[in-house]
């Protein structure tokens, strides 16, 4: 049962914890106000909704250490969390007790971040802080999550570009044979960068005209500067991709040029890093290079836009949404994802359309 004690010029509410120790709930200027709060504490404890204020006195830095120890995510995500905490969250809130972090403090911080970072990055940073504070609520250290329903200012981004089959061929023609094959494979499969550069011979089933994305080592990840094979982005990304005939032939020819266990490697046999490939090959091929008399194709296009390109082609060809999602490694939400399936006939029609697109560029 909570009681009231005189303390200096005011009164405080005290209570006994289950372990026998005595805690302080709050301080008040009058006995009447303190007694009202003491009655409320008794009611909350009877209803098992009481939040012990001492639990929220832990600093965010201390709480983050506890949270990270218990949080189970992949190495890539863990590295991202570490960066957001170290660079953005802990410098501002690390020494603050959890129960001292207010909504207005967070809103001010988000406003400042919006002036220096893209809205998508700010949203990711805010999401990490919100997870920390949300777990503190679940652990009954604080009453509410000060990040709840906060959103960074959205950027008005232009629609990402996509390429026609002739533009893909033009980009490829600006590259050497190995790099060109990587680009063509990306455009005609919709595979992610990490899936492409992580693809190994054992998962390239050319006799069956299929590529398999392995659940354990199906993607190459760059984590804190290190390249590591690991699972693809999502469980839905574990899939088998049917290849059009021309691409089977092209990949066979490409594999005859080296004996590395990976399909796509650099000239020195090393695995590709996205930044190196972009700087040395992708940017000059898409933006153009006047010194080398390379004409621009689609200035500003990202390598990932080849994935958008593949999606656009499937839409143009009237491929069912479920087949599009399966090929790209997505999962349709709700009932559509449960009851929709891709038949072999639909899959064959998809690759027939891709083969026709290639032939329309004047290639056999």
UniProtKB/TrEMBL annotation:
Domain of life: Bacteria
Domain Core-binding (CB) residue range list: 58-137
Disordered, as annotated region: 14-44
Domain (Tyr recombinase): residue spans on this chain: 158-352
Keywords carried by this UniProt record: DNA integration, DNA recombination, DNA-binding
UniProt xrefs under Pfam families: Phage_int_SAM_3, Phage_integrase
Family in the record: Belongs to the 'phage' integrase family.
Protein's name according to its UniProt entry: Site-specific integrase
Organism (species): Actinoplanes sandaracinus
């Amino acid at each position: 049962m909570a009681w009231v004690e005189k303390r200096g010029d005011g009164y405080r509410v005290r209570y006994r914890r289950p372990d026998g120790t005595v805690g302080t709930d709050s301080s008040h200027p009058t006995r009447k106000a303190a007694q009202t709060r003491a009655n409320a504490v008794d009611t909350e404890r009877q209803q098992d909704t009481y939040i012990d204020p001492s639990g929220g006195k832990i600093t965010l830095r201390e709480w983050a250490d506890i949270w990270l120890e218990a949080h189970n995510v992949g190495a890539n995500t863990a590295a991202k969390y570490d960066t957001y905490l170290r660079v953005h969250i802990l410098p501002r809130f690390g020494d603050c007790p959890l129960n001292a972090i207010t909504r207005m403090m967070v809103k001010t911080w988000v406003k400042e971040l919006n002036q220096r970072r893209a809205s998508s990055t700010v949203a990711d940073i805010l999401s990490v802080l919100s997870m920390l504070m949300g777990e503190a609520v679940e652990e009954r250290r604080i009453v509410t999550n000060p990040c709840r329903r906060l959103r960074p200012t959205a950027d008005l981004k232009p629609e990402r570009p996509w390429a026609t089959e002739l533009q893909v061929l033009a980009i490829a023609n600006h590259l050497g044979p190995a790099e060109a094959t990587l680009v063509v494979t990306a455009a005609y499969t919709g595979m992610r960068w990490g899936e492409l550069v992580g693809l190994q011979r054992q998962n390239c089933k050319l006799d069956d005209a299929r590529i398999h994305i392995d659940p354990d080592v199906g993607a190459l990840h760059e984590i804190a500067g290190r390249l590591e094979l690991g699972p693809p982005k999502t469980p839905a990304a574990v899939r088998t991709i049917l290849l059009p005939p021309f691409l089977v032939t092209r990949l066979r020819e490409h594999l005859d040029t080296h004996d590395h266990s990976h399909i796509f490697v650099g000239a020195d046999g090393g695995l590709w890093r996205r930044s190196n490939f972009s700087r040395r090959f992708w940017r000059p091929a898409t933006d153009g290079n006047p010194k080398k008399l390379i004409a621009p194709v689609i200035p500003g296009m990202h390598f990932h836009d080849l994935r958008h390109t593949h999606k656009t082609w499937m839409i143009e060809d009237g491929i069912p949404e479920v087949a599009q999602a399966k090929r790209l490694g997505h999962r349709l939400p709700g009932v559509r994802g449960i009851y929709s399936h891709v038949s072999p006939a639909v899959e064959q029609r998809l690759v027939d359309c891709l083969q026709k697109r290639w032939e329309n560029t004047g290639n056999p």
